[in-house]
Amino acid sequence: MLDAEIVIVGAGFSGLGMAIQLKQHGNESFVVLEQAAEVGGTWRDNAYPGCACDIPSMLYSFSFERGSGWTRTYPRQPELLEYLKTVAEKRGLLSHIRFNARLDEARFDEETSTWRVRIADGAMLTCRFLISAMGPLSKPKFPDVPGIDRFAGESFHSARWRHHVDLRGKNVVVIGTGASAIQFVPQIAPQAGKLTILQRTPPWIIPRGDAEVGPLRRALRRWAPGYAWLVRKLVYWSQEVRAIGFVVNPKLLEAREKLIRRYIERSVTDPDLRRKVTPEYRAGCKRILISDDYYPAIQRENVELVTTPLAEIREHSVVDANGREYPADVVIYGTGFKATEGIVPARVYGRGGAELSEKWRDGMSAYLGTTVAGYPNLFFLIGPNTGLGHNSMIFMMEAQYRYILSALDEVKRRGATSVEVKPEVQAHFNERLQAKMKGTVWATGCSSWYQDANGKNVSLWPGFTFAYRRLTAR
Q1: Residue 295 φ then ψ, to 5°
Q2: CB-hemisphere CA count at 13 Å for 165?
Q3: Pairing relation of β-strands 289-290 and 4-9?
Q4: pTM
Q5: How far is it, in rounded angstroms, from Cα 421 to Cα 376?
Q6: Between vectors from CA 19 to CA 18 and to CA 23, what angle results, nearest 5°?
Q7: Cβ atoms of 197 and 318 closer than 8 Å
Q8: What is the pLDDT of residues 427-466, one digit of tens each?
Q9: How many whole angstroms separate alpha carbon 307 and alpha carbon 324?
Q10: Which SS3 state, helix, strand or coil, does residue 406 take?
Q11: Which helix (H) or strand (E) holds 437?
């Protein structure tokens, strides 16, 4: 007996969007499992000072629930979280969500073609289809250095920000200069007595150009649907055109690099500091970041940027590879996420009892980032090689929603009990995908979170988003 036809794991952007699409498709037999006490996913967990999206709000929202009240070009974390809460309530999703329900194990029953899902509290659910919406940016990553557990002061990851910790007048050490760090560093720099930033690799940073959205534009978005549609299209293509340099001809990015270097020269007056923050790898190989206040922040008198590698953490300090010691009352890790591990943080067993993380030991792979051979009736949202370095992930999610709904309809039409990709189809797809990856900017030599332990890019889609939508049309 089924508890629900479909179980969705995760109530972040992708999971909520899938639930909305199921309801619009006339399917109310679904349960959403959420490990936290409220919806939001990434935008609930990442509540650090200055947290904001680097995709414009008009594009970083569902096409079927665009929202007209965005107050800024680039939405900030509180506004994004409120958007998701509002959407969940408006669309009647709360009655479908089980909060504080962390997935512990999922096992496919071959005799009944159903999934047996166990929650951390021991409760069991049986469903026909299982949809993972856990996302790759859910598992914080910490540096592998001696002494990390010995530190006697306050320490935390940016995705688990401890707002009760008072940074005023303290010796604060920030480890990492990725997307999160360049947002929170300008916010905490005025508070800290001394702020030391340990940088491994400088990011390419371009001006953010954020602005308030005035009442007139908000009114037009609300009362003139055609205007909102046109703005969304224009923003989409302004983002999508950047993929030409990323996936077609990375040499085209050289002109952009010159412009960014000029921006660095204008922004950073000290030659030594300018050298430290100027990347030597191809722009786009790591995600290009946007900020108007990071460079001014690191030029404050109480801020020091250190490029010598981190070697050790002691009870009241951190030590670099040259043996220099930096006093620390608080250590903040802006070291990103285990993106190649976060998609399956639980045990998932398919045909023959094959465990998915073991199957993926040599690297994640799926067909269209959505289905995996040997795991019938299992779908992934934001699965392997569906990430983007240039456009909105919402576009990719919505392509997957359509693909999954199409698969569910096909099962019903045929009177079948399961749907599964053929191993040879999945293998051929990934061979072509990785061959195409070799010609992209992400294969120009840098090391990034896009790659797994074997150096294989298992995170990004090596093409245009409209091409992905076409491939997932049916």
Answers
A1: -60, -40
A2: 21
A3: unpaired
A4: 0.95
A5: 8
A6: 115
A7: no
A8: 999 999 999 999 999 999 888 888 888 889 999 999 999 9
A9: 12
A10: helix
A11: helix 423-437
